[in-house]
Specification:
The protein is an alpha/beta fold. The chain has a single domain, classed as Peptidyl-tRNA hydrolase (Rossmann fold, 3-Layer(aba) Sandwich). It contains six helices and seven strands. A seven-stranded mixed β-sheet has the order 2-3-4-1-5-7-6, sandwiched between helices. A hairpin with a 2-residue loop joins strand 2 and strand 3. The longest helix has 24 residues.
Length: about 200
């Protein structure tokens, strides 16, 4: 991370109760876990986002949930970054990832979007991909099930039993990046991931 005055941690998802407990909204659920762990609440809206500004691990951080729908996530995050002069290296994006089995966490930086519409929107809006991503595995759909149905579908009983642990681990990964940096976090949280 560079030395912008502020950092951003943004969880990707879709607004509204129809999407609340779906695989595609795991970024929102991780942000909820992070806010709860930090004894905060999302109490403000600005730039098409729900957010809270807080001092976490000696850093001034905006915790953001864009309310623009997934494929326009970059617009909201870019408005925050531009207004508060936040460098792209000081942005952490948390999102669902089908290339990881459910519950796995993988931290990456400066990688392609991998077909994820929210990540694609951020890349297109900022014009580069030098932000940190916390990829949260949601697994591939079962044979015969379409991808959209999978990511917008609810959690299976087996997934539900892992969900709290998954969001807790992913929120810990965000805190670790803030406190000890990207390389340390990758060394700890990228074990046991396949891709």
């Amino acid at each position: 991370m560079s030395d912008s005055k502020y950092k951003i941690i943004a969880g990707l998802g879709n607004p509204g109760k129809d999407y609340a407990r779906t695989r595609h909204n795991i970024g929102f659920l991780v942000l909820d876990a992070l806010v709860s762990k930090s004894r905060l609440i999302f109490d403000k809206t600005r730039f098409d986002s729900e957010y809270v500004k807080a001092r976490i691990r000696d850093k001034d951080v905006f915790l953001i949930k864009p309310l623009t729908y997934m494929n326009r996530s970059g617009l909201s995050i870019q408005k925050f970054a531009s207004y508060y002069k936040i460098e792209i290296e000081d942005i952490i994006i948390v999102h669902d990832d089908m290339d990881l089995e459910f519950g796995k966490i993988k931290i990456v930086k400066s990688r392609g979007h991998g077909g994820h519409n929210g990540v694609r929107s951020i890349m297109e809006t900022f014009g580069n991909n030098d932000y940190i991503r916390v990829r949260v595995g949601v697994g591939h759909p079962l044979t015969g099930r379409d991808i959209t149905g999978h990511v917008l579908g609810g959690f299976s009983p087996a997934e539900t039993s892992l969900l709290d642990k998954t969001t807790d681990t992913a929120s810990d990964a965000c805190l670790h990046i803030l406190e000890k940096g990207l390389i340390s976090a990758m060394n700890i949280f990228n074990r046991n991931t396949d891709r």
